[in-house]
Design goal:
The protein is an alpha/beta fold. The protein folds into two domains: 225 residues, Alpha-Beta Complex (Spore Coat Polysaccharide Biosynthesis Protein SpsA, Chain A), CATH 3.90.550.10; 71 residues. It has a seven-stranded mixed β-sheet, sandwiched between helices. β2, α2 and β3 form a beta-alpha-beta unit. The chain starts with 7 loop residues before the first strand and ends in a 15-residue tail after the last helix. The model has no long low-confidence stretch (mean pLDDT 85).
């Protein structure tokens, strides 16, 4: 099987989903056989405390299309996707959750959009959701912010059901909690054709959601991170150096003006306020110091970047030999 050309690789992160796994794989296998797809299902157990990994082993023993990885502890969805992407060999890679809320019936159309319509990435949009309102409203706010900041017109960045051209997942690195921003990472890597498809959202059948309110805070912090790294990751001096220079110049000019104003008034025997008694003087000194520190941060960032093994890792789309 490993030597055959695969149409689809399914990457399925899971955490404490033992009840749903057999049903999910049976549903996937039914769809794949109906459509005549060759496939592999890579299941990544993210440190489950139940019998999820035991169930995956039992499924794999009877279904050669099922492969698996098991983490020693819970590392998070991004780590699971990263390892799954490394193993994926299919021409089209599709990610989905293991809780049966993503329908395998969507796979054929996602595959067609990648192979026939030429999309690099297709993101699912759970237009009608069965989650509680306390989860839906923050999600809407989060997605609106991500659309505004990134310029990518997707309604649901966090949907686990996505399809990728194989080249895309081999060209990006998912880390931290960046699984929410894979479309942004792909766009910054040069993959511009990003589409969207309305997908069915199933009500949760087993267990409970493994994500809490804290993911919203992490989501916004990660959005700032991915936008900063995308724009200034290769040239940190452009950000820190510019900010540091502006702060240094503002603080330095303001200090000179305060001292000059005091000397002029003193020479003309006018009332003046001692420099050391002016709060603005100390604020300007802080600006000068911060300016120097920002500039040094940019300089150190450039030194680190120049010694990085990834400094000349550029994505080549095609080549003529």
């Amino acid at each position: 099987m490993s030597q055959e050309k695969l149409d689809i690789s399914l990457v399925i992160p899971l955490f404490n989903e033992e009840e749903s796994l057999r049903e999910l794989i049976a549903w996937i296998d039914k769809v794949m056989k109906k459509e005549g797809f060759s496939y592999e299902a890579i299941m990544i157990d993210d440190g489950s405390s139940d019998d999820s990994w035991k169930v995956v082993q039992e499924i794999a023993a009877t279904n050669p299309s099922v492969k698996g990885l098991s983490f020693c502890r819970n590392y998070g969805k991004s780590a699971a996707l990263y390892c799954g992407f490394k193993k994926a060999q299919g021409d089209v890679v599709i990610t989905m959750d293991a809780d049966l809320q993503d329908s395998p019936e969507e796979i054929p159309e996602l595959y067609r959009m990648i192979t026939e319509e030429g999309y690099d990435l297709v993101s699912g949009w759970k237009k009608k959701r069965y989650d509680p309102i306390g989860k839906r409203l923050p999600s809407k706010l989060f997605n609106a912010t991500a659309r505004k900041v990134s310029g990518i017109k997707l309604h649901d960045f966090n949907c686990g059901l996505k399809a990728y051209r194989k080249k895309v997942i081999k060209s990006i690195e998912v880390f931290g909690e960046m699984h929410r921003y894979i479309p942004i990472l792909a766009q910054r890597a040069g993959f511009k054709k990003i589409g969207e498809k309305v997908v069915m959202h199933q009500a949760r059948k087993y267990g409970y959601s493994k994500f809490g309110w804290e993911r919203m805070i992490r989501g916004y912090l990660d959005l700032i991170t991915v936008m900063f790294v995308s724009h200034f990751g290769r040239s940190p001096m452009y950000f820190f150096g510019t900010l540091g220079t502006l702060m240094f110049l503002f603080g330095g000019v303001a200090v000179i003006w305060i001292i000059a104003d005091k000397l002029i008034k003193q020479m003309n025997e006018l009332a003046f306020r001692p420099v050391a008694e002016q709060p603005l003087f100390y604020l300007c000194l802080v600006a000068v110091i911060l300016g120097v520190l920002f500039f040094l941060a940019g300089f150190i960032g450039e030194l680190i970047n120049r010694n990085s093994s990834e400094r000349n890792n550029y994505m080549i789309d095609d080549e003529i030999k």
